[in-house]
Amino acid sequence: MKEMPKARTGRFTPVVLTYAGVLIALNIVLSKFISIPIGPTLRLSVSQVPLILAGLWLGPVVGGLCGLAGDLLGCLISGYAPNPFITATAVIMGVVPALFASFIRGGVQGGSYSDRFARLGRIMLVLAFCMLIGSQGSTTIGLSLLYGSPFRALWLSRLPQSILLLVVNSLLTELLLSRIRVPGSR
Residue 76 contacts by C-beta under 8 Å, 6 or more apart in sequence? Predict the structure, then answer.
């Protein structure tokens, strides 16, 4: 049986571009079509998971570009102008987890429950950092400027959503990382 081509991180090979395209498409579908809006400044969505995986599987450059492309194409599809602060959050979610990929993996290749639970904890730490600077930071600044809402009130109102999505995104990321193998991924 023929071996699958390897996805070399940092290079834009056809395999890398294919995975990136699929993850961008997943991000758009999850953010624009499969999400639960709660008012003008809150939306429950797991659309960041494909960006996190893009970074972890394909490297920080490709992860960041997936975030950028997913947000800009999503804005185009939805018919609204991109907000640079919200776009920055999408880029952050593709880049930062990739920078901590070795910490997330922790050198553990085992599939035991204790190994997976430890990796889940590391994923939660990294995503908490990402959400603090991204969702709670950059996105909240962008929404505050867009709607003229006070930053502190908006930050506090978005906190429960961020905590819930931290848990859900971490669980999904760990589940998919442990189940799907991308050829030549990091």
Answer: none
